[in-house]
UniProtKB/TrEMBL annotation:
InterPro entries: Beta-gal/glucu_dom_sf (IPR036156), DUF4982 (IPR032311), Galactose-bd-like_sf (IPR008979), GH (IPR017853), GH2_Domain-Containing (IPR051913), Glyco_hydro2_dom5 (IPR040605), Glyco_hydro_2 (IPR006101), Glyco_hydro_2_cat (IPR006103). Belongs to the glycosyl hydrolase 2 family. Residues 712-812 form the Glycoside hydrolase family domain. Residues 435-455 are annotated as: Disordered. Residues 161-261 form the Glycoside hydrolase family 2 immunoglobulin-like beta-sandwich domain. The keyword Glycosyltransferase does not apply. Keywords: Glycosidase, Hydrolase. Pfam families: DUF4982, Glyco_hydro2_C5, Glyco_hydro_2, Glyco_hydro_2_C. GO terms for molecular function: hydrolase activity. It comes from Leifsonia williamsii. This is Glycoside hydrolase family 2 TIM barrel-domain containing protein. Residues 270-419 form the Glycoside hydrolase family 2 catalytic domain.
Length: 819
């Protein structure tokens, strides 16, 4: 089918008591939640960072050309959050409860051809809370119009499978599912070509009989000599083009990108891509983009994939839902391996109105939609059927696990399957009988206020809290035999045993179950140093995924180190970010990413970081989900003489620290990588040196204090700023000295003014703030902020002026060109 954008000229309004304030025209994708006023009183609370939900109606008017009558026009929605209903000229034509599922709505029987038609999409996100993290609201992923001929390719009917591949020869099977829109039986011919860099390299053809109003699938096996294989180091892509003809007349065409690669996993060799052993240096990633909200835009997904790869990650886990097509395409381009995850809940709810309500009725169709979206992407090398599922230790969950595995293998037999099983959760979860009793209790009115005990919706909160406060005891508990009895049946059904915070089981399970590959589906950042040597030394342990690779909205404060606060799992109002420790929401690399590189063996030099000196005298509240709050700065104006904690990370026998060339106090060693020093702060140059066992210097790192100057430092980053309603211009904003050294204690309010065809999103990585990302003023955090401009459909010049008290304003102009 021909796929064209259907993202332009929509209007959106909030449906409430029959009152609508329509905004538009807007270009999809659009996140309505990010525009809402946050409130400490929203039922969503910390789950969404105190953003409320709502009911939103998107409207688009258009003329349906007469020629569409024979082209079976169909709308393709990549994701609408959530419980969507699609109306065509007032008639309900489709929709989807899941906010993450790809779905299609045939339009033909509802359209008035040659006349104006109205599409209305109602997204009902008013059933709060329905997620443990920020979801966004509305049509936050792209919409496309699909059209085809009388005998046409089904919307997800093109699938390519690598049957075999090596440096000399590859064989790819391309199947094309077609549908006959006429009453007459016919025979269709499908011609498939593979192209690389604009040149045809191989082709094949097949014929398929199709009954009247029936379907059929043609499959062509194509050989490719000396193929350019896809791998994380060389993400080579091909374009596959399929043409459907009947009696030599072209009926339909479809195009997609594919990669030629093989994926195998076994206990003896672990994970192999094209026969090469690959260890997963993984990052769990939620779907939002911080100050942009949940909108799925190609450049945002590409930027995140590129930055994660540059920091040493080679894999992402889509936590905890099927990902956007743009993310998978970016992973394809940059060579990121993807664990595509299905859901956070099965039948036992974690929040009052979550997917558990719809699971029984919809899970099979939603699972098929996940496969359809992922199938042709070479980056997707594994599926996960769940995350921290409470029932996997009970008979009902064990049976459901088996059903899901069987369904997934039937839909896609080419990729291994895992499940993010949390051993500790399996111990806490109630039996089937107790859960049934709890469901009965849940019908009582007071349960809506959260009075259910650990056997109800608060179970996952109890889990996270206990893991945080019992970090020393948890490894002992998860290693016990009674824990093994709770998880073993589920693990036996999987191709790869998935351990969620179960690294303490790696070694013993590698011995007990030598035939079962293992992956760490989720690990606290502070646990990576212990887990990674086990991954490297055991072939059957294929990798480890840290929580999280990129900070996110919602689960407010779960990864934040707070000061002078009582121990608590989540931040109170106005907390809005999780506060995890790899990349912050603006895409700034935090200290943890450099620690990871040292752990993975990708960085040989030491790395200096300093705990915030402005909080040196405050009491810190630790977090399982953040190992350090130290940042890369020795510029702490106003705190001269304050004791500073300097952290030096290195693989070395000995570490020394100098200030302006003079040795400072002796450091204290913590494990294999970290040495800390207590140094009264004074401006200067801080130098760390590392030595091997023989006393030879093997590396160094340096921090220099900023000078007295203060200025706004602004740069412009874009992959092309064009008038398509989708393009982005990133403007990192820093408060620096004359040499560009960031000053973390110089925070102030910054104003961004724009003149021209663009829309502004603006904010910082402050984990707790009442400021809005939709306003043009925002305070910096530790000297940094980020402005993002989204182009409209109009070309022209955009002038941006950035100003702050005590700084000279900065202006720059960027041209929005024609597409």
């Amino acid at each position: 089918m021909l796929r064209t954008s259907f993202n332009d000229d929509w209007f959106v309004g909030r449906d409430q008591d029959d009152r609508r304030d329509d905004l538009g025209p807007i270009t999809l994708p659009h996140d309505a939640m990010i525009t809402e006023t946050r409130s400490p009183h929203t039922p969503n609370g910390h789950n969404t960072g105190y953003y409320p939900g709502g009911i939103y109606r998107y409207t688009k008017r258009f003329i349906a050309p007469p020629e569409w009558q024979d082209q079976h026009p169909t709308l393709e929605f990549e994701g609408v959050y959530h419980r969507s209903r699609v109306f065509v000229n007032g008639v309900l034509a489709g929709g989807r409860p899941s906010g993450y599922a790809l779905f299609h709505v045939p339009l033909g029987t509802h359209l008035r051809f040659g006349e104006e038609n109205v599409i209305e999409v109602v997204a009902n996100n008013d059933d709060m809370p329905n997620s443990r993290w920020y979801t966004g609201s509305g049509i936050y992923r792209p919409v496309h119009l699909l059209t085809g001929g009388p005998v046409r390719v089904l919307p997800t009917g093109l699938r390519a499978t690598t049957l075999s591949a090596d440096a000399e020869q590859a064989t790819v099977a391309v199947s094309v599912a077609v549908e006959n829109g006429t009453s007459d039986a016919t025979e269709a011919e499908v011609v498939v070509t593979l192209n690389r860099k604009g040149r045809e390299v191989a082709s094949g053809r097949a014929r398929v009989p199709v009954d009247g109003f029936g379907t059929g699938t043609a499959t062509a096996e194509i050989g490719i000599g000396h193929p350019a294989l896809w791998s994380p180091d060389d993400p080579n892509l091909y374009q596959v083009h399929a043409t459907v003809t009947v009696d030599s007349a072209i009926q339909d065409e479809v195009v997609d990108s594919i990669g030629i690669r093989t994926v195998t996993v076994d206990a003896e060799h672990g994970l192999r891509i094209n026969g090469q052993v690959t260890k997963l240096r993984g990052a769990c990633v939620h779907h939002d983009h911080g100050i942009l909200g949940a909108v799925t835009l190609d450049q945002a997904e590409d930027r995140r994939a590129r930055l994660l790869k540059s920091a040493g990650f080679n894999a992402i886990r889509t936590a905890h839902n099927p990902s956007a097509r743009a993310l998978l395409a970016a992973a394809d381009r940059h060579g990121l391996l993807v664990m595509e995850e299905f859901t956070d809940v099965w039948t036992r709810a974690k929040t009052t109105h979550d997917y558990a309500t719809d699971f029984e009725e919809w899970h099979e169709r939603d699972l098929e939609a996940m496969v359809a979206n992922a199938y042709n992407h070479p980056s997707v090398i594994m599926y996960s059927i769940g995350n921290e599922i409470a029932e996997t230790g009970q008979p009902s969950g064990i049976e459901l696990n088996r059903r899901l595995v069987d369904m997934l293998r039937s839909a896609d037999s080419t990729r291994p399957i895992t499940n993010g099983v949390n051993p500790f959760l399996n111990l806490l979860a109630p039996s089937d009988e107790k859960h049934t009793a709890q469901l009965t209790k849940s019908a009582e009115p007071d349960d809506e206020k959260g009075s259910g005990g650990p056997s109800g919706r608060s179970l996952i909160t109890v889990l996270n809290l206990l893991m945080s406060v019992m970090q020393k005891v948890t490894p002992i508990i998860v290693r016990r035999k009674f824990t093994d009895s709770k998880i073993r049946e589920v693990m036996d059904m999987l191709d790869v045993a998935g351990y969620n915070y179960g690294g303490a089981r790696y070694v013993q399970d590698a011995k007990r179950y030598p035939e079962k590959p293992i992956v760490g589906t989720e690990t606290g950042p502070g646990q990576l140093a212990q887990n990674w040597p086990l991954v490297e030394s055991h072939p059957q342990i294929i990798g480890d995924f840290v929580w999280t690779g990129w900070d996110y909205l919602g689960e407010a404060g779960i990864g934040t180190i707070r000061y002078n606060d009582r121990p608590r799992l989540f931040s109170p109002w106005p907390g809005h970010l999780a506060g995890t420790s790899n990349f912050d929401i603006t895409g700034h690399r935090q200290t943890q990413t450099y620690i990871n590189e040292i752990i993975w063996g990708l960085r040989s030099d030491p790395y200096i970081a300093v705990r915030p000196v402005d909080h040196a005298r405050d009491k810190r509240t630790p977090s399982l989900f953040r190992a350090t709050d130290a940042i890369r700065s020795w510029s702490w104006d106003g705190f001269e003489g304050t004791p500073a904690t300097v952290e030096v990370y290195a693989r070395a026998a000995r570490v020394t620290l100098e200030l302006d060339g003079a040795p400072v106090s002796r450091g204290r060693r913590h494990g294999d990588l970290l040495t800390t020093f207590r140094v009264p702060f004074r401006p200067g140059t801080l130098t760390a040196r590392t030595y091997d066992e023989k006393g030879k210097e093997i590396g160094s790192d340096e921090l220099r204090s900023a000078d007295a100057d203060l200025r706004l430092n602004v740069s412009a980053n874009t992959d092309g700023f064009v008038a398509d309603g989708q393009s982005l211009l990133y403007l990192p904003i820093e408060l620096t000295d004359s040499a560009g050294m960031v000053k973390p204690t110089a925070d102030r309010t910054v104003t961004v003014s724009i003149d021209g065809p663009a829309v502004l999103a603006f904010g910082s990585a402050a984990p707790s703030s009442s400021e809005r990302f939709t306003e043009n003023t925002h305070s910096t955090f530790q000297g940094r902020a980020m402005a993002v401009l989204r182009a409209t459909r109009e070309p022209g010049a955009v002038t941006v002026t950035i100003s702050a008290n005590g700084c000279t304003a900065v202006s720059l102009t960027q041209t929005v060109s024609l597409p």
